[in-house]
């Protein structure tokens, strides 16, 4: 079931900033060693912390309305929205760290009336056929993962680590003002 690990990139496309030079999140992520490895990670309770805002940065970096990233994906085949991920395949990916995994995903933050909505996907593992079948594409905005916000780096790390024991991976995203969901069960054994 390694081929279904592609859904992890969708789940964490929200925090991908490795290829996005202008990203404030990239600076935060690169200065935080927990993005590279999960060893020594302590529990982080970020639910009650209000997000920091930088209105000038948000205005400068907000995506322009109507601007859609180009996609070279063939739309003629059925896209995958559900399936199974074997935990034995998932754990080595988690052990590699979120930062390493996101090196092939590019996103930008999306805002509506100054409020953070999610991370808009610009590219998702280009040239990888397994990822092309996922029903998540450039232009989609990932809003939540397993029902949790992914706005700040520490939230993304907490969601990443929670996948070690989670029974599913549910990615909520918007496309053309419609809500969509990817729903993958995480199974022990084969």
CATH architecture: Roll
Our Rg estimate from Cα atoms comes to 16 Å
Number of helices: 7
What fraction strand? 15-25%
Q: Which oligomeric form is depicted?
A: single chain
Please write the string of helix (H) and strand (E) elements. HHHEHHEEHEHEE
Determine the mean pLDDT. Answer: 75
CATH superfamily: PDZ domain
Q: What is the general shape?
A: globular
Would you report the number of β strands?
6
Could you explain how this protein is built, in words?
This protein has 190 residues and is α+β, with helices and mostly antiparallel strands. The protein has a single domain (2-40, 57-65, 80-187), classed as Pdz3 Domain. The chain contains seven helices and six strands; from the N terminus they run αααβααββαβαββ. The protein has helices at 6-11, 24-30, 55-61, 87-96, 98-101, 129-132, 153-162; strands spanning 82-86, 105-112, 115-124, 141-145, 168-175, 178-187. It has a six-stranded mixed β-sheet with strand order 1-6-5-4-3-2. The longest helix is centred in the middle third of the chain and has 10 residues, at 87-96. 31% of the residues are buried.
């Amino acid at each position: 079931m390694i081929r279904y690990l592609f859904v992890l990139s969708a789940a964490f496309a929200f925090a991908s900033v490795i290829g996005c030079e202008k990203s404030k999140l990239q600076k935060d992520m690169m200065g935080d060693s927990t993005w590279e490895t999960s060893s020594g990670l302590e529990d982080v309770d970020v639910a009650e912390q209000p997000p920091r805002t930088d209105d000038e940065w948000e205005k400068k970096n907000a995506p322009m309305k109507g601007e859609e990233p180009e996609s070279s994906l063939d739309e003629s085949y059925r896209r995958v929205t559900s399936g199974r991920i074997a935990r034995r395949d998932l754990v080595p990916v988690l052990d590699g760290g979120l930062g390493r995994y996101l090196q092939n995903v590019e996103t930008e933050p999306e805002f509506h009336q100054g409020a953070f909505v999610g991370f808009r996907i610009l590219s998702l593992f280009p040239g990888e056929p397994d990822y092309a079948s996922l029903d998540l594409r450039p232009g989609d905005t990932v809003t939540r993962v397993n029902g949790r916000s992914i706005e700040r780096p520490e939230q993304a790390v907490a969601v990443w680590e929670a996948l070690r024991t989670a029974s599913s991976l549910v990615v909520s995203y918007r496309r053309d003002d419609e809500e969509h969901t990817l729903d993958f069960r995480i199974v022990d054994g084969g």
